[in-house]
Here is the input.
Amino acid sequence: MVDLIEKKRDGGKLSKKEIETVVLGFTRGEIPDYQMSAFLMAVYYRGMDEEEISDMTAVMAGSGDMVDLSEIPGVKVDKHSTGGVGDKTTLIAAPIAAACGVTIAKMSGRGLGFTGGTVDKLESIPGFRTEIPREEFMKIAGETGICVIGQSGNLAPADKKIYALRDVTATVDSIPLIAGSIMSKKIAAGSDCILLDVKTGSGAFMKKLEDAVKLAEIMVRIGEKVGRHTAALITNMDVPLGHAIGNSLEVIEAIHTLQGKGPEDLTSICLELAANMIFLAGKGEIGQCRKMARQALQNGSAYQKLKDMISAQGGDIGVIDYPETFEKARVCHEVPAPAGGYITHMDAAQCGIASMLLGAGRATKESLIDHSAGIELIKKTGDVVKLGEPIARLYTSDPCLLPDAQKAYLQAVEISDHPPMAQKLIIGRVTTKGVEYV
Ligand code: URA
Here is the structure.
């Protein structure tokens, strides 16, 4: 291991055998954390070439179960976001795609730090089960066309162990390590096609557009190399998506969006994600797929798919039809604008931290979640505000958490005399043919 750390530290290229030694040795507990930490930091600074990243991905994917979805009829399409704040797109885009005949048999993750996770959001629905035995998962996906569960314990265990170490050694935001982490899980999860939503901006791991494009291109090539039809959208995460951050608040916003009453940014990004999932499944040209996605939203079939999934997974449909009956947080506090003017910037990661401080997220993997906690953004970047006017509502079950959360939230918001430059929400699309900027 010392030789391999040294080789990477000095910028050398590792063979597949050497990568296997490191990744599997660490997963089996034969390589201690201190040596793996040094190795990860060497990769962080020296990078990996595409062959090394592909080899690492394959080794990590093969470190546990490789899910076989072939008994479920239809083309299975998975979707993955590199992580964001207020990102409830799976809850909307997946039912839209499923309503257009795409099969979704998906494993999703939990939130950590400032980012949220789909499984936590779904678990805010009373009765909803995210741990489902394999046979039942296959049956629900086959019969309703959509089933979303938590990641099984033995899916890419190498990634689980490596990610936990990256999280505490400042080695998360590395293109080779993110690509290997995401693609190993997606490949092991067994879908035929993979749509990636690569976020860029203040609430994303990739703060710079050129890094997001590089990450997307590498992941698309890795997916295609192992026979999974893969594409990526590059989307803006400089501002939280929609108006809700926090688990049940985000589910309610997703329901409104599927009922055609959602915020414009969230609706348009979900339509584009769904259209690309439909496209990857081979249902038509991208223009036709966009039309199909819009129709499924407008005619209510996508909303019905969400309800079918929730009902099949044991969730209470009553709260879906009447979202005002979701359990409410005990405390709601309005944040007054500290100045008048235009909101010129909202640091999305900082908004995520404020939401975590209210109890909606996990500071560590062991933290418990308050499903009703979170933030309702009343004003967002570009809006005009008056001094003292409410710009957000903070929700929590514990009033003692409010002062720190409000302080964190106010640090996220910049107000000035001049309007900000408009930003694109969907920046580009990466396929095997290259990058298309929108
Ligand atoms: N999401 C992942 O699954 N892995 C990473 O490394 C970063 C984001």
